[in-house]
């Protein structure tokens, strides 16, 4: 209800949107200007009309959001009026803006922590997510020495799952608040950003997929004045280049007549206004004959990200064509050799731009852009640059700030509401009736089943759609009967399962996962089993259910959890597995009071799991990729033998003529292969990566992701790799291992994990290699145990690590024998911080 009011408001806003620049060939379909917490409509000189986000009744906003207005005494100029009001949030909240178009949009966010008597907005710490992209992570003004307004500009793509809708979520960190002063959403022309660009240093063109988001790092007008949104049809700001010039004496500003700037095909005023093209920096004293220097600009950026660098050129300084030739360098590497802008445009005073992507490797946090004369000196020495844009590109985790995927901040649990919407929109009249009847029928039957005393449960008779019977009867049905005849999986009757689990007695629940609850049960023949019951009301998980049956029907291995049978009656989807008394590996590592595992036990468990995965990858006729390798999916039996479980997400691997499987990203955060995330191409090496995370978890006894820790420690893959690269992995190992772990064995293990965690799949070992290396690590440990009585214990690690991994006493919600956490659950779901981040209300 409230939602529609909000959407309406946005529509009204849109009607008021008047493109200001008459010259502009492009009229944005979407332009929303929102004054958060404001109270009146504000029309700016540049044509933008800001509207209040209006009272608390706005939906998409949490009910406890508060508008805050600055003290009127605070003199804020007309242009900065946006900064005089804000909306403050105590809990995670979302602005939802329905747009007219899909595709890329500018998203500008305004922040200014003005003094006010109600909230300490200056010390607010919060994260911001837009359509699955992390824009800001734990942002705060509290560390800045000078408080100034902050305008953040992003480009986000609205295609994909949430088309025509921008969801902007602000999430306060750990009891803090979040606030925002203004939001701007403007659609972009189609061709504004390239789908590929040349890398520097040069190589094959790098693809820029549409889902990549950008953040404007710098937008500079070389040799010209500050250009405000007034001078730009897309309301961008271009700053002068003086602050970035490395040597101001090397450059001289030149300007031409803005009216004479020509826009050839492929370049429009939306790429950059003529005010950018009509000014430039050229080499100072350009007509002195012997000039050999570069003009250099230097920009501070964040390492670890890839940047899109767009250079704007317009040769209005030459008298004739082909007389201005120069070299362009990025980070001291050649970007363009002997570049002649006029040869590209075939005329003078014509706009031209070119894009590059540059990788900021670890440790480097500057981008150096240089233009200078070529070494071949048949031309007068000169070089120009008119404009420069540096855009940060979202990384494989879908983040523009650190390595924190949006899932980490905004949980994406399927909510009931989604289900209802889905049901309504997909139900045609007849289908709807059918669904209603069968739901009613099902509920009726279920009631009978649940109400009757347990010994009568089996008296419940098969219903018409019943496809299988108890083991004494032959089943009907195509695929299921094949499975039966192969002797692999039994089809179990619902009644039988009711009996085995005492009508799904809550006291037998072993765990709860995305698929549903897992119960302990005893079959008639006294076999202990784990019964995984899909949530009967949702069709979600149906594919997973089928996948798992199909996969497990083909597979039998000592290190894979066996499927004993399944039941598919009406809406019930139940899988019955062998019972794994030891429960998930994670429980033995941290978060419970179980006896800590010895190093040898840990190695044997890793070896077992590696064998299971190796078999998946190579053993069956077709290679199988597990896709969700993690410590909760490695189960232990009563003898601590490891078995790999949960094939709900598994996929058949690439066939011989393919090198990868293309697929939407699924899996668990913290274990996801960055390459898979980036390119959505699945190979066996994605499992190898996840297994590398498991290895580190086994060694350090801490969750893959622990948001309660300082930022650099949150992600185990990053944190442990840092120590491994320094050769000091022992500093962060599980304290229980100190004194008993052999250093050589640890080194071997660390190296193996490091290789598994390599950035690119091709650099990672196969599961077979991993297995071999782990067995070697075990031998090293055993050899040492045999000789230890003779030698002294010099081979052991005697000292206590400086940093002791934190265990999570609270995170043992997933006790149980099987498949407790089969969805993309977070590793520290029950830590205090986390319950804060995850809105229990969902969306
Ligand atoms: C502020 O700075 C301190 C020390 O430099 C750092 O520990 C803290 O995380 C910073 N806070 C934020 C919100 O960035
Ligand atoms: C261009 O250079 C002149 C002289 O050096 C200086 O006065 C002027 O401010 C410069 N213009 C810009 C836009 O930097
Ligand atoms: C901005 O544009 C207006 C006209 O649209 C022009 O008069 C003004 O000089 C421009 N400002 C700059 C800095 O170019
Ligand atoms: C560069 O050449 C112009 C004419 O072409 C001349 O006016 C100017 O003085 C020269 N500059 C220098 C530094 O020689
Ligand atoms: C310009 O910079 C590049 C890269 O930093 C360097 O290789 C080249 O020698 C420089 N050119 C001159 C003339 O100094
Ligand atoms: C980024 O760096 C990696 C290695 O550090 C390299 O393999 C990759 O090709 C680079 N990408 C670009 C766009 O330069
Ligand atoms: C969260 O806040 C509480 C109290 O405000 C504090 O004790 C705790 O250390 C904070 N946790 C983190 C991870 O900052």
UniProtKB/TrEMBL annotation:
Residues 1-24 form the signal peptide. PROSITE patterns: PROTEIN_KINASE_ATP, PROTEIN_KINASE_DOM, PROTEIN_KINASE_ST. It is a single-pass membrane protein. Keywords: ATP-binding, Glycoprotein, Kinase, Membrane, Nucleotide-binding, Serine/threonine-protein kinase, Signal, Transferase, Transmembrane, Transmembrane helix. ATP binds at residue 532. It comes from the Eukaryota. One of its GO terms (molecular function) is protein serine/threonine kinase activity. This is Protein kinase domain-containing protein. The lineage of its organism: Eukaryota, Viridiplantae, Streptophyta, Embryophyta, Tracheophyta.
